[in-house]
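This part of the workshop introduces the protein records we will be handling. A record pairs a protein's sequence with a compact description of its fold. Backbone structure tokens are a discrete shorthand for how the chain folds in space. The question running through the whole workshop is how a given chain folds. The record below serves as our worked example for the rest of this section.
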Amino acid sequence: MRPDSGVGMQRHLVKILDAWGTRMKFSVSAYLWFLFMLAVLATLQRDRIGLFLVPPFLTTLTILHLLPESPIAQPYPVIVGSTVSAGIGTVMAMLSRSTWAIVGATGLAFIVIHLLRAYHPPAVALSLYPSLLHPSVWFPLRVVLPFMIVAVVSAAALCRVLPGWPRYPVPLHAKRISPEIAERL
């Protein structure tokens, strides 16, 4: 083994991190917001199911904070995509408790939120929860919808009162796609 091989590996690691590594500044306010939102989640679902909802909900908060200009972070896909997906999962769980119902709920949610132009990645995961955890039939409206509304509204409010908080949401008048692409949609 060559004595300078460690230096060469370090250079490659630096190149990899520069090209592909995430650049997230430590933000106490973001972590406090995450904790506050998890407390909101705890109040929405009293039968401890909220603990299992942490992954998709925390993923949504991360997207809102780190990718605020992304189409998947905008209020419409976050609120509508998540609520519709949870609704699809709830209906499928009422129809059947089989593995195929879970697969069907996920696939159907993926298709429907695409058709609604409301794609939000954690929303697809929310379609699984009714079949896995058997919450109330009101799960989409009593848990998912209020949480997503509070997440979107609080992210929008924080960007107006905290310096350095990312701007959210993208203004309605902002052009996000070229006219040529919009024409094909």
The chain has a mean pLDDT of 86.
